[in-house]
Write a structure and sequence with these properties.
four-stranded parallel sheet, 845 residues, Dna Ligase, domain 1, alpha+beta
Length: 845
């Protein structure tokens, strides 16, 4: 069986193989995994691969590919087989990463401090002062415990001789740790017994240490800065994760980490600087921020001091300089990502640490040095040329690819702009197995690289026992990049004898620290929650209307349709499901344009499956888009339901059949009911939930008002089953009356029955009740707009007023619809257009 597994596994003759030694014998730490694969038939491995893909889709794990024209999100590519590293080898990697992080932190402190390395000639001034990432406003910035580099990642590659080499340092806003954690959570159910057998180390302790360290420095920041309101004894500092927003490549990871660590995920607009102090703009007021864990690039962090950008926070540099906020990593840390520094690190290590580097960097030459430039040109075929500074637009160039005039032109550019280039030795990457299905399933070899992560603590650096293994797209790939479709692996590090690691002293939560409300809910987050509620309800409304209309269209001949069909057609026109290019009908009006059955059916089918027109598919995309802004607010189970719903069944090519379309609509309705169940039974009734609830109620109120206005205008003899079906109330009606629907009981059920979740009165009661809850802490907000209309609704005389041709009833519904729109606008102005009016928005520490 082993021979069959390895039948298509080609060992590299001039490279290192992670799984097999030179004699093609499995290495000791891989044997347990290979034995597991031997005992599993190819069908089992196909199931495992599908489980991984399914879990990635269910969890919504994505990596945004910004080069795509439409900016679509690409599902995260996770291979089912891990990379395994024995503890003896890992101990060497761990020690080298700790040393390197310590060295880079000292260099960063010196470059932005005394600059002794420049004066001693250990660093060329042109390399530092000519670097666009050197931020002069950050000179002499204060750092608690002399830590400027709080998070560090390093890209490693194994050379053909088996040694690990450093390919690049990631010091600005290192990404990938969250993806590594997600990889482990997905792979663990695939190989639970194997993980225990191999004693694979857990990743959770690393993230606890990360969080505890930020809390420690947040308290120091609160105590040592010059802000007027320090933390009270035992209080927790406010730590936020600053993201560029949903369009950034690794937004999923940022939201995942924020949820895992329990941090508010904020954008630049959520923060403001007042008197040198950073505040989070929340519905409860301005809350002081003590630590910013950033994913925004250096130059974009502060549009006032650095570079104009909508992603940053004006005045952030000044606040950090005064010590009132800790920015992790420190502003200006992108300087260390320059590949030009690699060649100077050995001497700097001996000078600053008194020891040689434990792990060398790949051989690197900075062309800004004349001797290095000539050496690079002399052996160009064996090198890869890269930009010296990350801000430069050049791409990596392989010297062996340059021939003729292109080679001459490139050398001329090197001589003209030598400071802009570095050259690195071209290293053949090691390879590891991936599982491939097909006619001959088995193992295939792919080049891999390893990104390792470290975080600073008050007692030194700690390394994550694992990392993000990146996998090349094909057997001949020379570079590893996620932007061009690269895959990933879980990284298994085997444990040594159990060692108790130092843990920061934890405080105990007292009764004074108990929390019953989300006091850090930002205005932007509250607005997104309200619109999430509205979009979820719109999906349900549109899906139910399409189902009602298509049921009649498919099952009732034109000449047999009752007086209700023109009304249903009018509703489809109003919601732009038919004739989207025409002006919607006014309330109560019947369609003036006559559409044939074929035209109506074609339009409605398109509205179900195509996001290019108004309808269910487009609404599902909008729901998913707004949900992407709320990733850290929802549970994993909630997200799985969202992802199932947000993947509309767009049927390419042939026209969908009637059964396919009705199945899509039924599945969408069921998924939306699952989402509603999460909202009603799985979410805490905090401030965020209240805004989401108001959004759902407002949308349902407006929809029901429109539907009932049009129903009142139809012929008295029209069938009312469709109206009850559309309002999800037909079962209630049948149980109560056991008779054909009539106007009086139908209108009573849909207008005034406060026990019916679809009635007008139920929505108004829900909105007013929620607004009253919010008013207890945030002041009144437009309750009067619906209060008087509620009284009118209650005062209706069922015997006299609840009939199909009542003009006053239709007018009341119209006024309710307009009032709900006015209330929505009032909420937006009061809560989402942030102004510090001093009435409800006080600053808190």
């Amino acid at each position: 069986m082993l021979n069959q597994l390895l039948a298509h596994y080609l060992a590299a003759p001039d490279g290192f193989d992670e799984m097999l030694d030179a004699a093609r014998v499995p290495r000791a730490h891989w044997r347990a995994l290979l034995a597991n694969l031997e005992h599993g038939a190819p069908d089992l491995m196909r199931q495992r691969r599908e489980m991984v893909r399914h879990q990635v889709r269910e969890n919504g794990v994505t990596y945004n590919v910004l080069a795509d024209a439409d900016g679509t999100q690409r599902p995260w590519d996770l291979n089912v087989l891990p990379l395994i590293l024995p503890h003896e080898e890992w101990s060497g990697i761990e020690a080298a990463v700790i040393q390197r992080a310590t060295l880079l932190n000292k260099i960063l402190g010196d470059v932005y401090g005394k600059q002794e390395m420049l004066r001693e000639g250990l660093l060329p001034p042109a390399l530092i002062h000519g670097h666009a990432g050197f931020l002069r406003p950050c000179h002499n910035m204060r750092h608690h415990d002399d830590i400027a580099l709080h998070f560090y990642a390093v890209d490693l590659a194994r050379a053909p001789d088996g040694r690990w080499w450093v390919m690049a340092d990631r010091t600005q806003a290192p990404s990938g740790a969250g993806y590594a954690l997600e990889n482990r959570s997905i792979i663990t159910p695939i190989f639970p017994d194997l993980l225990r057998e191999l004693k694979v180390q857990s990743l959770a302790r690393f993230f606890r240490t990360m969080h505890d360290s930020l809390v420690h420095w947040g308290r120091l920041c609160a105590a040592s800065g010059d802000a007027p309101a320090p933390l009270r004894d035992g209080a927790m500092p406010l730590i936020v994760l600053l993201t560029p927003g949903p369009r950034t490549e690794s937004y999923y990871e940022q939201a995942y980490l924020a949820r895992y660590l329990g941090l508010p995920l904020v954008e630049g607009g959520d923060l403001t600087v007042r008197d040198g102090v950073v505040y989070l703009k929340t519905l409860a007021g301005l809350h002081r921020v003590h630590v910013i864990m950033r994913r925004v690039d250096d130059e974009a962090c502060d549009p006032l001091e650095l570079q104009s950008s909508l992603l940053g926070v004006a005045g952030l540099t000044h606040a950090a300089m005064r010590g009132n906020v800790l920015v992790a990593n420190s502003l200006g840390s992108s300087l260390l990502e320059s590949g030009a520094l690699l060649g100077f690190l050995p001497a700097l290590s001996r000078r600053l640490l008194g020891e040689p580097l434990k792990m060398p960097s790949v051989a690197t030459w900075w062309c800004g040095e004349p001797a290095a430039l000539e050496a690079v040109i002399g052996k160009l075929d064996r090198l890869v040329i890269k930009p010296s500074f990350s801000q430069l637009p050049q791409f990596a160039v392989f010297g062996q690819d340059l021939i003729g005039d292109a080679r001459a032109a490139f050398i001329a550019d090197l001589r003209a702009n030598p400071n802009n280039y570095i050259a690195q030795e071209l290293v053949r990457l090691s390879q590891a197995p991936v599982w491939k299905d097909g006619a001959a399933p088995g193992l295939q070899a792919r080049a891999i690289g390893l990104r390792v992560f470290a975080c600073a603590t008050p007692n030194g650096y700690v390394v994550m026992p694992g990392g993000l293994t990146r996998v090349a797209t094909g057997p001949d790939a020379r570079v590893l990049t996620m932007q061009k479709g690269g895959a990933s692996k879980d990284t298994w590090v085997q444990a040594r004898a159990r060692v108790e690691l130092h843990r920061l002293q934890k405080r105990s939560i007292t009764s004074a620290d108990l929390v019953r409300e989300d006091t850090n809910l930002s205005s932007r987050m509250a607005e997104n929650l309200l619109w999430f509620g509205r979009h979820a309800e719109r999906c349900d409304n549109i899906g139910r209307l399409l189902r009602v209309a298509l049921n009649i269209l498919f099952n009732v001949r034109f000449e047999q349709r009752g007086a209700e069909w023109p009304t249903i057609e009018a509703l489809c026109i109003w919601f732009q499901l038919i004739g989207a290019e025409t002006k919607p009908l006014a309330p109560g009006a019947l369609p003036t344009a006559i559409f044939t059955d074929a035209e109506i059916e074609s339009a409605l089918l398109l509205a179900v499956v195509s996001p290019g027109v108004p309808g269910l598919a487009r609404q599902q995309q909008q729901l998913h888009r707004i949900a992407g802004q709320l990733h850290e607010r929802f549970s994993v189970d909630n997200w799985r339901a969202l992802n199932r719903l947000a993947q509309p069944a767009v049927l390419a090519g042939a026209r969908p059949s009637q059964s396919e379309v009705m199945t899509i609509l039924d599945d969408a309705t069921a998924a939306l009911m699952t989402l509603a169940g999460f909202a009603l039974d799985g979410m805490t009734r905090d401030l965020g939930w209240r805004f989401m609830s108001i959004g759902r109620r407002l949308e349902r109120l407006q929809f029901q008002s429109v539907v009932l206005q049009r129903a009142l205008a139809m012929n008295e003899d029209g069938n009312l089953d469709w109206l009850l079906d559309l309002s999800d109330s037909i079962i209630t009606y049948r149980v109560r009356y056991r008779a054909q629907p009539e106007w009086l009981p139908v209108l009573d059920l849909l207008l005034r029955d406060e026990t019916n979740p679809r009635s007008i009165l139920f929505q108004i009661n829900g909105i007013l009740g929620t607004l009253n809850k919010i008013a207890q802490t945030h002041g009144a907000c437009g309750e009067h707009l619906l209060g008087s209309l509620k009284e009118e609704l209650i005062a209706l005389d069922p015997g006299a007023d609840l009939n199909h041709d009542n003009v006053m009833l239709s007018d009341l519904l119209n006024r309710i619809q307009l009032a709900s729109a006015a209330l929505s606008e009032q909420i937006s102005v009061q809560f989402f257009s942030y102004t510090d009016n001093g009435q409800h928005r006080n600053r808190t520490s």
